[in-house]
Amino acid sequence: MAISASFQPDTVARLMASFRNGDHEAAGRLVELFYPELRRIAAARMRSERPDHTLQPTAVVHQLYVELVKVKALRPASSDGADEKTAFLGLAAFLMKRLLIHHARPLSKRSEKAELPDLSGPHSPAEHSLLEIDDLLNRLAAINPALRRVVELRVFEGLTREEIAREMGCGTATVARYWNFARNWLEEALAGTPGP
Amino acid sequence: MTDERWQVAYTIYEAAVSLTGPERQQYVRASAPDPEIAGKVFAMLDEMENPGGSDVFRKREHSANAASMRSLTSGSRLGPYEILDRIGEGGMGVVYRARDPRLNRQVAIKLLSPELAGDPQARERLRREARAAAALDHPYICKIFEIGEEGDALFLVMEYIVGETLHSRLLNGRMPLSEALHVAGEIAEALEDAHAGRFLHRDLKPANIMLTLQGHVKVMDFGLAKRMADPRQPHNSTISPEASGAQLTAPGTMLGTPDYMSPEQVKGLTLDVRSDLFSFGVILAEMISGRHPFRKLSMVETLSAVLRDSPDFGAPIQQGTTIQGLFIMARRMLAKEAAERYASIADMRADLAKLVASSEAAATISVEKYPADRMPPIGRDAELKQLTRQLEEALAGRGSLILVGGEPGIGKSHLTSSLLDAARLHGAFTVTGHCYEMEGSPPYVPFIEMLEHSARSVPPETFRYALGDDAPEVAKLMPELRRMFPDIPPALELLPEQERRFLFNAHREFVERLARLTPIVLLFEDLQWADEPTLLLLQHLAQALARMPLLMIGTYRDVDLEVGRPFAKMLESLVRQKLGTRILLRRLPLGGVEQMLALLSAQQPPRSLARVVFEQTEGNPFFVEEVFRHLSEEGKLFDERGTFRPNLRMDQLQVPEGVRLVLGRRLERLSEDARRILTTAAVIGRVFPLELLEQLEQARPDGALEAVEEAERAHLVETEGPGRQTRYRFVHELVRQTLSETLSLPRRQRLHARVADAIERIYAASIGAHVSALAHHLYQAGSSVDQEKTMHFLSEAARQASGATALRTGPRSLGQCFVLARQ
User: Fold this and answer.
1) Which residues, including other chains, have CB under 8 Å from residue B95's CB and lie 6 or more apart?
2) Among A130, B84, B327, B725, which is disulfide-ready with A93 (CB 3.0 to 4.6 Å)?
3) Under an 8 A CB cutoff, do B297 and A107 touch?
């Protein structure tokens, strides 16, 4: 499976250029473009592996990066393309974290808009942010691995409660129970984090 | 919490999910090592079963309770009563419909849960309470007939009511205003009656209020519910003697909703009538806004909001003074400090009655008009943005002063009224006061207008509360307050130099108290004409704005800024001291004119037309509108299909030079009668009461009204906001001037004399309130009237002015007086 046809490499390249120059609007557009792709990759990876396979955000994002390089939307990581990779990873990490925070919020606060942090520049926390998300999901899995899986399926794949139940082979009430705990946990775990 | 503690919480959570009711409560409390973990688990369980924050969860909880109780089947007997069917369950037990064979009437029987019935002490208390509650006899209170016992069972026999609870009624969203007023009125009556019998309800909530099929209220469970045990605070032991003595159940077994508890109830303090008043306030807010002002996703958050947050009414959908008044009332009932609420239900009912009366008047006479179709201000995006930002800040408690300047017709009022609309949408209370060019107008006129408007719009008991101890001083500005509130004590005797300081401080405190009940936006129009006392008071308020939910906006004409007028100086000093920000409105560019024409005609105007109009009007929006109306009335713009004439030739348009001329032409199209009558109105002033005009046109009583209606249709005058008398206002000062200037000086003087005469006649009973207008017209009438009389009223106006401690305006009228005397 590869990048969908509607994905214009030229557009991505141009947006990436603007984004690296600090254009937040471009970042917003890129997030819109990447989200379906991330979901697609996440879903594919989870189906193709063992049923209890977990997501590993770092791996997903790196795969998307490789695919984008393949279609020449991004330049390969060379001496001059290095900051492009950093910028991209930062953006992807931001996207994933924003999704987590969005879902972790109580319903009443969902509509608050997230402000895109400054992801460009030499001190980008890109790799760090990705690892942070990995770490977060690992901590949740330590309480119960099923909690992590519910979060991944719901947040990164956007599945409904019924779909998650089918995927995990349990009842919807159980899914609700897992999700309810995970949401409360995430809300507190993310509460201290700055950014989106 | 650390992950280890989360792990513990998760284990308890998973185990507790399968339990219900008291079992669950006990399990969680027994297993959790400390209250924090227990609280977290309870919150998560609550959230899972109650995701929308509604009462669903609690209902299930009750069902679970009920399931464990002895249940009665249809046909079984309880004491002398025949059980018919089960009709519901509440916090204390299951409710059945039953028949009393002795009287052959239906009754409702509440079978108390075993936890309640099992404890001998609790039984005894309940017997006592029920016996006392049975003494309540009011048509809006559900009657208790008896408390019965059979074996272990303890049951309450009550009036059987057919209808629905207010709770289920509110599931459909907010109520129509009239219904909310009606229901609130009956709840208030019931509460007042009960309070008179020294009964507190203590658990007033929509689920305890029935709406009968006949459309009446029945308040249930009066005085029965005592302090609800809060499962989230099991260690709370600060219970007042009164509450603890009355506590009916072991903690946690009687799970009630805390959503309607007063802060003092949450804290476990001693309660009085004002606690019921708070619960009532929550219900009132819910009825009119359709949302609970404090409810959050979890109980803990709701409790915290009850204790700390200001109520959230959302954006009121309806507008108008009644809704406004209800929100002010609700806000006062929901004050965290009982001392800031109404002292009694009777006080609250006084306000409610006033609102009911005014809403009925509004429904039958005229509904307050909001120009929904008002054109948005063109080319003022940046200004509107700044105003909106400052409005938002003010709503959040950080007020400011904005001064909007520009030439006549530039759109100051248009811009500010857009903001006022927005403010009202956000639930703010908006008041406007005008300054007048008129010589000898009393000092503080805009503040007096604002006071009068507020006194009409704010429910009276609350208005009196806002006046507080400052009432005697504020009444100096508006003596009528003493008639409205005869309890206002006489003002202190003050030295002249103290007078102003006391008045200013009193007024500020009054505004501050009112602003705490509802955010306020004050609009001062035409500040260039303001007298010095008004400006000093304005400055005084401006200094305290930063910590008040109060936005002050002033408009002024920069072209009329005479250096000698007090405002010129004050503007400088306000801006210099950073007490106010200035917004200057400039003329529209060509594109703006084009946009306006497009909006006025609802189609794209030819570019050449826009250019002609732009050149004629130099981009002044009022002039653009006038020229547009002139041309379209002349039939020059549109063909019979209503589209711009395709062969529109600019040289044929003959736009007259100058807007005065355009106005003149538009006025010429009025019927001769209407124009003449309107000219008289122009002599009265920018705003004129219909009755005064009618007095001047006695020959044909309907003539005045017909003329005004004709002018209203031609967009030359508009109705002035709702008030006791019908008043009209020229849409623009230029319209009034143009009319007035068609008169020769002697004729104008003669008209002023007639106006003065008419004022004396129709306001004979209250001439004191019209002295300054009278003085103005007499003065303008010149030598055609009795000079001694003119002097008398001028000095009277001056005396009134100094009476209101406007030390420097008085002398101005006096000065005119001296000029006259010398002549």
Assistant:
1) B86, B87, B88, B89, B108, B109, B110, B111
2) A130
3) yes
Task: Enumerate the β-bridge partners of residue B157.
Answer: B109, B146
pTM of the model: 0.57
Measured between beta carbons, which residues in chain A are less than 8 angstroms from residue B53?
108
Distance CA A121, CA B498 (A): 63
DSSP state of B152: T
Distance CA B194, CA B199 (A): 5
Q: With residue A66 as reference, give the H or E element that holds it.
A: helix A57-70
Model-level ipTM above the cut of 0.85: no
Distance CA B349, CA B346 (A): 5
Interval A5-42: pLDDT, tens: 455 666 777 777 777 676 767 776 777 777 777 777 77
User: In this complex, which of B1, B10, B297 lies closest to A181 when CB atoms are compared?
Assistant: B10
Task: Enumerate residues 6+ apart whose C-beta is below 8 A from B280.
Answer: B184, B187, B188, B191, B204, B333, B345, B348
Q: Give the Å distances, CA to CA, from B51 to A104, B296, B670.
A: 14, 10, 64
Tell me which residue has tokens 């400054």. A118
Comparing alpha-carbon positions, the chain B residue that sits nearest to A177 is B48
Backbone angles phi, psi at B140, to 5 degrees: -100, 10
Per-residue DSSP letter, B633: H
Strongest mean pLDDT among A178-192, B46-60, B357-371: A178-192
B203 is catalytic: yes
Which among B155, B164, B167, B161 has a CA at the least distance from the CA of B58?
B167
Q: Per residue in B793-804, pLDDT tens? A: 888 877 776 665
B292 touches B286 (CB < 8 A): yes
Q: How far apart are CA B208 and CA B219, in angstroms?
A: 6
Q: Which amino acid is at B392?
A: E
**What was the pLDDT predicted at B246?**
33
Position B256 confidence tier, pLDDT thresholds 50, 70, 90: very low
Tokens of B464: 């009196």
Whether residues A188 and B14 touch (CB distance < 8 A) is answered with no
Q: Is A192 within 8 Å of chain B by CB?
A: no
Query: Bridge partners of A101?
Result: none
| Chain A residue whose CA is closest to B41 | A181
3-class DSSP assignment, residue A167: helix
| E strands in B427-470 | 429-434
Contact between residue B59 and residue B47 where contact means Cβ atoms under 8 Å apart: no
Query: For residue A181, which residues of chain B lie inside 8 Å, CB to CB?
Result: 10, 13, 44
Amino acid B371: pLDDT? 43
Q: Tokens representing B809?
A: 């305006």
Token output for A24? 């937040």
Render pLDDT for B193-241 as a digit per residue (tens, 0 to 9): 988 888 888 889 998 899 988 889 999 887 665 433 333 333 333 333 3
- How many Å is the maximal CA-CA distance in chain A? 52
Instruction: Say if residues B522 and B433 touch (Cβ distance below 8 Å).
Output: yes
Average pLDDT over residues B669-693: 90
Contact B809, B531 (CB under 8 A): yes
Contact B297, A108 (CB under 8 A): yes
* Max intra-chain CA distance, chain B: 104
* Percentage of residues of chain B with pLDDT beyond 90: 23
Contact between chains at B44 and A184 (C-beta distance less than 8 A) = yes
